[in-house]
Design a protein that fits this description.
It is found in: Cell inner membrane. It is built from 25 helices and 26 strands. It is α+β, with helices and mostly antiparallel strands.
């Protein structure tokens, strides 16, 4: 009992000890799981306190990437999903605040509108059937793939969100309008005009040296216009690119390899494993097979006009004659070995008409490419019909147009009597091409292609000239393993030397071009001239990457060695970054004062004479189109003109391109209207059309947005 009483007397201490132990356990668990920042580590963003979960965001990015196709990139998908999610969160806040909801009955109406043309949800009479839709939904619920029903729920939710959005925008639009006074102002801005005379004194007339701009003046201008010079967090880098490209040694090795192919050579047969002897390129009769075995590009069975070949090699190839071989020779990124297979003369343009008779097994041309023909006649029957038509036409060629309309299955031209107009023969299928170049103008005959049998009339042939068939062994000039290894070693040496010394100095000493990139943003993806280089941008924005840090990155065609040159925090831009933008503004302000001080005279003629220029005229100038003939867009000058009376001369006006003194010659006011409702309506319509964009921009500007995308992508 004494022990129990002693324990009871100390119970408060036991409770405290146990509580401390529990707290220590919980605190340790928090630290092990990432601490109090665990939530932050798993959220892509926070928008007015609403978190975008990393896993959910990643799922949506994956879906967006699939929708966008192969030409998209992860970064573009991330940015697209980001815009969607920010807009969704901000609009949902508005829906909740305004009590905008879409009930079950309205959802059913929306589903009906969206699905009424889908045959899966139509009854026997072709009308939308709610019963069929409910049956379809029940099937999805029972599906072994839970994603099927989930996709349906997402579809329903998207319809509800579209409806909420439309309701919300309509509410905003209802509060946007224009008064009759607004309509009157719009009417006058469009139709009131002035005729002016003016003297233009260009800023360029004052040398830049007479209007120097200091760094302090730029800073003062930025301070006075802070709203115009806000920037997000940026990085500046410079980099050297090392390209894995073939060396002269690699080119010579490939040239030697192709040279060996000209003569008889031995090679291992991949199918049999036996070493065989093959005829060289100069003598082989199996041209197509030779190219299949030895070329990156297969044989192209076509006739080449001289203009179709690269100008650097065309004359040489045409001078070879049949059987002549040229090369190996370099052509851009390739090493070629060419042989003239055949020579002939051929027109470069032929006018023909045809009657196409297709058959089972033939193909039909469509916008998506050739597809199997729907013909039911046999090939034999098609040939008989073609022969029959040819017999008729040989007796009376004038029936060609009527027969084409009646029998041709090429409906793209049958109504025109099968007329194909003038075409390059090479644009036709081989059988058609050979017929129209092997025969003379006026010939009618039959040719077979994969489209069917063609009854052809050669109407005209133009510009007969020499053509050749050329077989070319094409091999891409690639860097050897030795060259790739040398480039890697060179890159590594530069990286180490630049880290120990000065990046620019080391690059210059080795003859490497340093390429600067200014003001990269956290979610940028590309580097100028290098395409997508997201890993470089991510590295530049890492918390432990400092100014001066250097890193090497592998690219598709080599390496980039980059150095961070500046870290710029979000806020007002630095003087150095805006100097090129602000300096001309301040300089022109100074030049304007210099010009004003030189102006003398009270009339335009006197002022023009004192400035060594002339008086110019501009008529029918309006406020809505503030362009002055001979001066360009000058809204300040035009605005000042509308504040003057006829005959009144202005004070000097600082415009975009110079200083102006103007005189209003004539004021033409548009006749008043009894009612300005039409113009008021136009203004209201313009304002309402911009509602969605302006509302979202306003919501984003007012929102508290924490953007962590760059941490994850």
């Amino acid at each position: 009992m004494a022990i129990l009483n002693k324990i009871r007397s100390k119970s408060i201490f036991l409770i405290i000890i146990i509580a401390l132990a529990l707290f220590a356990f919980i605190f340790s668990s928090i630290l092990d799981s990432g601490g109090f920042n665990a939530d932050k580590q798993n959220r892509v963003a926070s928008i007015n306190g609403v978190n975008l979960d990393r896993e959910d965001f990643a799922t949506k990015v994956e879906a967006q990437t699939r929708r966008a196709g192969a030409n998209s990139s992860t970064t573009r998908a991330v940015n697209a999903v980001w815009e969607q999610e920010v807009n969704r969160v901000l609009l949902e806040e508005q829906y909740e605040e305004l009590g905008i909801q879409v009930g079950k009955d309205r959802t059913q109406e929306l589903l009906k509108q969206a699905l009424q043309n889908d045959v899966r949800f139509q009854d026997a009479d072709g009308f939308f059937s709610e019963a069929k839709m409910q049956e379809f939904i029940a099937t999805l619920k029972d599906s072994q793939n839970p994603g099927d029903y989930q996709s349906w729920l997402v579809f329903e939710e998207s319809l509800r969100n579209q409806e909420k959005q439309e309701i919300y925008y309509n509410l905003v639009r209802a509060g946007v309008g224009a008064t009759l006074k607004d309509g009157e102002v719009a009417y006058k801005l469009d139709n009131n005009t002035v005729d002016i005379q003016y003297v233009q004194m260009l800023y360029t007339s004052v040398p830049d040296e007479e209007a120097p701009v200091s760094k302090d003046e730029i800073q003062e201008y930025v301070n006075d216009h802070k709203d115009e010079f806000q920037t997000e967090e940026t990085r500046s880098i410079r980099f050297v690119k090392f390209v894995e490209e073939a060396s002269l040694e690699d080119e010579n090795a490939l040239k030697a390899e192709l040279s060996k192919l000209r003569n008889e050579y031995t090679a291992r047969n991949g199918a049999t494993g036996v070493t065989e002897t093959f005829a060289g390129f100069d003598k082989t009769e199996e041209i197509e097979d030779f190219l299949i075995d030895n070329s990156d590009v297969p044989f192209v069975d076509r006739w080449f006009f001289k203009k179709d070949l690269p100008s650097t090699n065309a004359d040489t190839l045409f001078a070879l004659g049949k059987g002549g071989v040229y090369g190996p020779y370099k052509d851009g990124r390739y090493m070629n070995l060419s042989r003239v297979v055949d020579v002939r003369k051929m027109p470069d343009s032929v006018k023909t008409s045809h009657i196409l008779i297709d058959f089972q097994g033939a193909v039909t041309n469509t916008a998506r490419g050739p597809i199997p023909s729907s013909a039911t006649r046999s090939k034999e029957d098609a040939k008989k019909l073609a022969d029959s038509l040819l017999s008729v036409l040989k007796r009376n060629k004038n029936k060609f147009e009527d027969l084409a309309k009646e029998f041709s299955t090429d409906k793209s031209n049958s109504d025109n009597g099968g007329d194909l107009d003038y075409q390059n023969p090479n644009l036709f299928a081989a059988g058609y091409r050979d017929f129209i170049v092997d025969n003379n103008e006026g010939t009618i005959g039959i040719a077979e292609t994969n489209f069917g049998y063609h009854v052809i009339n050669i109407v005209d042939q133009k510009n007969v000239q020499d053509v050749i068939k050329v077989a070319t062994v094409v091999k891409e000039i690639l860097p050897s393993d030795k060259t790739i290894s040398n480039i890697y070693n060179t890159t590594q040496k530069f990286e180490l030397a630049a880290a120990e010394g000065d990046f620019q100095t080391v690059a210059t000493e080795n003859g490497y071009a340093v390429r600067p990139v200014q003001r990269i943003r956290a979610m940028d993806e590309t580097l100028p001239g290098e395409g997508a280089q997201r890993t470089v941008v991510q590295w530049a924005f890492e918390e432990d990457t400092n100014v001066g840090d250097i890193k090497r990155f592998a690219t598709n065609d080599g390496y980039i060695v980059a150095q961070v040159t500046r870290r710029t925090p979000a806020g007002t831009e630095r003087v150095e970054d805006v100097s090129l933008q602000v300096t001309p503004i301040i300089r022109n302000m100074k030049k304007a004062e210099i010009i004003k001080n030189k102006i003398s005279g009270s009339t335009l003629s006197e002022i023009a004479q004192s400035q060594g220029t002339t008086v110019k005229t501009a008529g029918a100038v309006s406020m809505n189109a503030p362009t002055i003939a001979g001066a360009g867009n000058e809204p300040k000058v035009v605005g000042a003109a509308f504040g003057l009376k006829e005959g009144e001369v202005s004070s000097p006006i600082e415009g975009s391109r110079g200083v102006y003194v103007i005189e209003v010659v004539k004021v033409s006011e548009a006749p008043g209207l009894e009612n300005y409702a039409a113009f008021a309506g136009q203004q209201a319509q313009k304002s309402r059309a911009a509602v969605s964009t302006k509302v979202l921009n306003a919501l984003k500007e007012a929102a508290d947005i924490e953007d962590n995308r760059a941490t994850f992508y």
